[in-house]
Amino acid sequence: MEFDPVTVVITIAIAAMLYCMWMVVSLKSQIPGGVVGSKWNIVILLVAMFTAGYMALPFFNRIPDEILRMIVSFVFLGGAIYVIITVKLIYTIIQELTE
Amino acid sequence: MDIETIFFKTEKGKDEIEHRSCGLPFNQRRVLILVDGRSSVAQLKARSAGIPDLEEILEELQRQGLVHAAGDGVPAPGASVDDAPAPRNGNAAAGVRERLIGLAGEILGPDAGKVVRKLREAPDSEEGLATCLESCRKVVKLTIDEAKAEELYRRGRELLH
Q1: Could you please report the per-residue DSSP string of B33-85?
Q2: Residue B117 forms contact with A (CB below 8 Å)
Q3: Which residue segment(s) compose the domain that B150 sits in?
Q4: Residues of A in Cβ contact (< 8 Å) with B111
Q5: Tens of pLDDT, residues B77-102
């Protein structure tokens, strides 16, 4: 069997996303609400979207270019929203803990 | 059921004690009266000698919305029967701590576990409890509910003064 570094990287990425998915879901019970809890469902949704996107990676060569570009643009948009939410949460937590 | 679990009376439970509107059987009513927001299941068992199946009764009361658990694994406090304990042996801070714990259970319900644990670990002084209350406010605001955090802090400060 030929060694394919791309497959290895994709497998590691999928495994990392699955681990991330498990973490956000298990943390949910500890954050029923509040500043963090209110954003947590969006975080779960985004992580689920990324996980699905990562798992579809091996099949990307079968998808027509137009659709692929659309999927990638949505993943980028989701990534940007994810970063905004995460940074805002960290900012709020730091503000709360240092006031 | 975790024997370290602490149960609190809900508003409906307090109402039941006064008005007997649910028509609880004798043993269920006795257990409801024993629930004080500080005693663990193990302590309730010790105090309810003669009542078989205490855990099932607690579960039944929970199903009826008369009591709620404050989270598993909360360290058990010193046994006390009163609902609003007065300071004992001149230790005012210990009395205030118990009242703060009761307040946390009342406001936060089943989510009170973390806050109850923090209050139990706070130093036995007014300053220590005030600092802990401030810290609890932040925890509640970030992870439970912003309005409840403010209510806990406001009413907690009243107890401290």
Answers
A1: HH--SS-BHHHHHHHTTT-S-HHHHHHHHHHTTSEEE--TTPPP------SSP
A2: no
A3: 92-160
A4: 32
A5: 433 334 444 444 435 677 888 888 88
